[in-house]
Amino acid sequence: MTEPAADLPLRDVVAALESLYPLDTAADWDRVGLVTGDPDQPVRRVLVALDPTLEVIAEAAAWGADLLVTHHPLLLRGVHSVATTSAKGASVTALVKAGIALWVGHTNADVAEPGVSTVLADALGLLRQRPLSTEGGHPAGRVGELPESVALSDFAAAVAAALPDTAAGIRVSGDPGATVSTVAVMGGSGDDRFDDVRASGADVYVTADLRHHPVLEAREEARGGRPFLVDAGHWATEWLWTASARDRLVSALEQSGGATRVETRVSAIRTEPWTFVVGANAARDDRAAPEPGGVS
């Protein structure tokens, strides 16, 4: 009679995750790795998500997950209380009460190969990829070539088709008819990388969380030309990583013989915070300000 396989301890799953996303590659300010959980507790189900929100934690508990793996940290800044009167405290309490361990791969997942930006570049079909820049000796962002040159408007439509839908959609700064072929990408917030993008020679830069002043200055520096800018949303540009992380974890566990003992799933919860927009005009590029008190 064959003996049933022993439970896989959390420490083994964590070791597999940290072989893929080493903690020492994270930025100094980041807070990654094991947040809750006992290294000796058994892991039979792993849920992968972008954000450790209360709704995602509830999903993990309802499914019976023993481990939640997320990209964004739960406790990035100092916390002096985990009382349930705050969302952070309620999250920690929910994890502990349900016996769910939490492991975070943030900037260490950004610079991994493949990492967050690699997955985004692959989704956009970029060829001959190379790093956009380096962080502490590790690659950050990607630059690659489209199979053929296309109009900026068509490229933006392709970006929208490759990423999950969001209420805010895709924001673009540039001439819709201009042709683009070289693309830089940075999953998540990326308006601190404009110098790197210019140095890369990219025609267009796809990232998220683009703020008014950095974008205006970047477009002024470009004199209206390249690089054009595409803001595809933080959640959308990073969400694709969850499936990649899940698949890579399964492969790592297979090498150690543990994959058959662990069930994995990508969260079905959309943690995109925006729910609707009003008054968007996708084609507007007039430079006239509205009349005071008027409607634009």
Task: Give the SSE layout.
Blueprint: E1 8-9, H1 10-20, E2 33-36, E3 42-43, E4 45-49, H2 54-63, E5 67-70, H3 87-98, E6 101-104, H4 107-110, H5 116-123, E7 127-135, E8 138-151, H6 152-162, E9 171-173, E10 179-189, H7 194-200, E11 204-208, H8 212-221, E12 228-231, H9 234-255, E13 263-266
Parallel strand pairs: 4-5, 4-13, 5-6, 10-11, 11-12
Antiparallel strand pairs: 1-3, 2-6, 7-8, 8-10, 9-12
Helix pairs in contact: 1-9, 2-3, 5-9
Give a description of the structure.
This is GTP cyclohydrolase 1 type 2 homolog. Belongs to the GTP cyclohydrolase I type 2/NIF3 family. It comes from Terrabacter aeriphilus. With 296 residues, the protein is of the alpha/beta class. It folds into two domains: 8-109 and 239-264, NIF3 (NGG1p interacting factor 3)-like (Udp-n-acetylmuramoylalanyl-d-glutamate--2,6- Diaminopimelate Ligase, Chain: A, domain 1); 113-232, 3-Layer(aba) Sandwich (Udp-n-acetylmuramoylalanyl-d-glutamate--2,6- Diaminopimelate Ligase, Chain: A, domain 1), CATH 3.40.1390. Helix content is 32%, strand content 24%. The chain contains nine helices and 13 strands. The chain has helices at residues 10-20, 54-63, 87-98, 107-110, 116-123, 152-162, 194-200, 212-221, 234-255; strands at 8-9, 33-36, 42-43, 45-49, 67-70, 101-104, 127-135, 138-151, 171-173, 179-189, 204-208, 228-231, 263-266. Strands 7-8-10-11-12-9 form a six-stranded mixed beta sheet. A five-stranded mixed beta sheet has the order 2-6-5-4-13, sandwiched between helices. A two-stranded antiparallel ribbon has the order 1-3. Strand 11 (204-208), helix 8 and strand 12 form a beta-alpha-beta unit. Helix 5 (116-123) crosses helix 9 (234-255). The protein is globular. The termini are far apart.
